[in-house]
Amino acid sequence: MSLTRFFRNTLAALSIGLIALLPLPAMADDELPAQIIQVQGNGSITTQPDAFSVQVSVQTEGKTVEAARNSNSQKMNAVIQRLKALNIPNLNLKTAGFYVSPIRESERMPSPRSTKTDNIIAYRVVNQLAVKLENASPEALSTYASQVLDTALAAGANEAGGINFYLSKNNTAQQEALELAIKQARQIADTAAKAAGVRVTGIYNMETQASYMPLQRSYVGAAMAEAKSYAPTPVETGDLEVSASVTVRYIFAQ
In whole angstroms, what is the distance from residue 80 CA to residue 95 CA? Predict the structure, then answer.
């Protein structure tokens, strides 16, 4: 036997011996592949919103910043006081923005605008107020929304928009839709298991998702801020469709 072949055989024997001495990896029962049925369930209900939000603003102009700001402050204070005087339960008022900007000569020039002179001729102040109401009865919600808009506009607000009807955190509609989705998922899993000759024994994991959307757009009729007397602004809250979906992986056994 050649010296090269002797060393080759010796190394192979040593390798086999070392492998035999290494411990084999243990596989616990809970690491075994699970027998899974994956199903998806969906649930939806139709409900009415119990909350709304809207933004009203006061925009004023003046020859100086002080003049524009003083005029704005007087009008916005009147808006806030009139809204508070409505005594609507849970009505929340919050300043959403305050802006001061110069008005330049070019803004008031007809097109084409001249860029030779662009002097500041006045100042603009905008104060934005976010109004929110939650946990209101659906029957009263549209009435409250109309009162807020009309009162703010009559008190001096000259901009309003972004009205939104939604579900408050305390609303149980999403929970109800999710319960329907989970029940449907279990029914599908039981049906599939029975057809396959097995039975569902537990849940491996679960993923849920819930959302809602208006079935019709909320509508706010045209309101007249300058009018001394006007009919209440018509507001239709509409219905909401609350939907939920769930993906469940069930464990099954013979």
Answer: 10
**Residue 192 falls in which region: left (phi positive, over 0), alpha (psi -120 to 50) or beta:** alpha
Candidates 171, 102, 138; CA nearest to 237 is: 138
Of the candidates 134, 123, 203, 201, the one whose C-alpha atom is nearest the C-alpha of residue 164 is 134
Q: How far lies 145's CA from each of 76, 91, 133, in Å?
A: 19, 10, 9
Q: b/e string for 101-125 if b means 16 or more Cβ within 10 A?
A: eebeeeeeeeeeeeeeeeeeebbbb
**Rounded to a whole number, what is the distance in angstroms from the first to the last CA of the chain?**
60
What is d(CA 58, CA 160) in angstroms, rounded to the nearest whole number? Answer: 9
| Residue at 127: amino acid letter | N
Per-residue pLDDT of the chain (254 residues; tens, 9 = 90+): 443 443 344 333 333 333 233 333 443 445 444 699 999 999 999 999 999 999 999 999 999 999 999 999 999 999 999 999 999 999 999 999 999 999 998 877 766 655 566 789 999 999 999 999 999 998 899 999 999 999 999 999 999 998 999 999 888 999 999 999 999 999 999 999 999 999 999 999 999 998 877 764 444 443 444 444 557 888 888 899 999 999 999 999 98
Sequence-distant (6+) residues with CB within 8 A of 90 are: 133, 134, 135, 136
CA distance 94 to 14: 80
- CA–CA gap between residue 45 and residue 38 (Å, rounded): 24
Do residues 49 and 240 lie in contact, with contact meaning Cβ atoms separated by under 8 Å? yes
